[in-house]
């Protein structure tokens, strides 16, 4: 494609890239990481929860103290809101519900001694709407089930969890419970936490990534945001240079003579070098001149170019 391609196309491309960057920057995620033990010693918690905002750890909870511990600037901001009491109550209730579910299916688990259930509830928001909600279940550190709460689709990761999936899938009330928590409560808190996140003048704490948060691709790291902005600035600079050259260069109408016949064509100054192959001669045979001169002659007298008309 010649360098002087349509600036309108370049402008449309830049607009699409700007829209894509705005969408990525406006995407947020909230992840609740539950660790449930089937048995624990006295004085040790049977439920521990870590809460991540955009993969940054900002809250911790344990069943022994039944208290939520704030971490970093975002944790302190959330601690000062009315949501704090609701969040503490929810984490305790969900922890107890997950433990009951775990104890019900524990006989189906082929292991001896105490077992551990890891549950990750994830919700995502983009452009002021919920774009993702899911649950991931792992037993003794091995992933076994994934539930997409947006369309209520179960995915078996470990074939040994097929019976567990069938047991939970038959319970319509349980599926509604999972959907309500991930698309309702989680989405509500994410919307509120996002306001505090965007208002923060500096990062909360050193990012502590959630262990293999499913669907984490929706959470864009700050490095990619900076890189995307840099690329857009470079593209805008290139567009301005091309547009300026387009305006200064202008376009001209030429007449080409060949074998007694004449042909009119329109081109920019930088397109003239492409005309030699069309005239069936090499570049060495062409004597190039600017379109503002009166004539452009070829060493082969069969061809000549004139300043337009």
From TrEMBL:
Q: Which residues form the MHC class I-like antigen recognition-like domain?
A: 26-195
Q: Name one GO biological process term.
A: antigen processing and presentation of endogenous peptide antigen via MHC class I via ER pathway, TAP-independent
Q: Name one GO cellular component term.
A: external side of plasma membrane
Q: Which Pfam families match?
A: MHC_I (PF00129)
- What are the entry keywords? Disulfide bond, Glycoprotein, Membrane, Signal, Transmembrane, Transmembrane helix
State which residue ranges cross the membrane.
224-246
Molecular functions per Gene Ontology: natural killer cell lectin-like receptor binding
Gene3D superfamilies to which the protein is assigned, alphabetical: MHC class I-like antigen recognition-like
Tell me the leader sequence span.
1-29
> What is the first-listed, main subcellular location in coarse terms?
membrane
User: Which cellular compartments is it found in?
Assistant: Membrane
The family assignment reads: Belongs to the MHC class I family.
Role of this protein: Binds and activates the KLRK1/NKG2D receptor, mediating natural killer cell cytotoxicity.
Protein name, per record: MHC class I-like antigen recognition-like domain-containing protein
Which organism was this protein described from? Answer: Theropithecus gelada
């Amino acid at each position: 494609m010649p360098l002087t391609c349509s600036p309108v196309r370049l402008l449309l491309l830049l607009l699409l890239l700007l829209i894509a960057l705005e969408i990525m920057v406006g995407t947020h995620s909230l992840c609740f990481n539950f660790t449930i033990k089937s048995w624990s010693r006295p004085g040790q918690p049977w439920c521990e929860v870590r809460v991540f905002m955009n993969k940054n750890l900002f809250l911790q909870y344990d069943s022994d103290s039944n208290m939520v511990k704030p971490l970093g600037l975002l944790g302190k901001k959330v601690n000062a809101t009315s949501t704090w009491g609701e969040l503490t109550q929810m984490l305790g209730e969900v922890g107890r519900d997950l433990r009951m579910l775990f104890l019900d299916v524990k006989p189906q688990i082929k292991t001896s001694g105490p077992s551990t259930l890891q549950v990750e509830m994830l919700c995502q928001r983009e452009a002021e709407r919920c774009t993702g909600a899911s649950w991931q279940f792992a037993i003794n550190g091995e992933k076994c089930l994934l539930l997409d709460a947006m369309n209520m689709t179960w995915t078996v990761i470990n074939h040994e969890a097929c019976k567990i999936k069938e047991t939970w899938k038959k319970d319509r009330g349980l599926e509604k419970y999972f959907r309500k928590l991930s698309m309702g409560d989680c989405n509500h808190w994410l919307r509120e936490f996002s306001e505090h996140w965007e208002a923060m003048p500096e990062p909360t704490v050193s990012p502590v990534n959630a262990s293999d948060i499913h669907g984490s691709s929706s959470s864009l790291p700050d490095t990619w945001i900076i890189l995307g902005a840099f690329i857009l600035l470079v593209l805008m600079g290139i567009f301005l240079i091309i547009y300026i050259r387009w305006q200064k260069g202008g376009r001209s109408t030429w007449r080409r003579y060949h074998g007694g016949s004449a042909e009119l064509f329109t081109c920019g100054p930088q397109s003239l070098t492409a005309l030699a192959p069309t005239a069936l001669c090499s570049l060495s045979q062409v004597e190039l001149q600017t379109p503002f001169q009166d004539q452009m002659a070829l060493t082969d007298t069969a061809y000549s170019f004139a300043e337009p008309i």
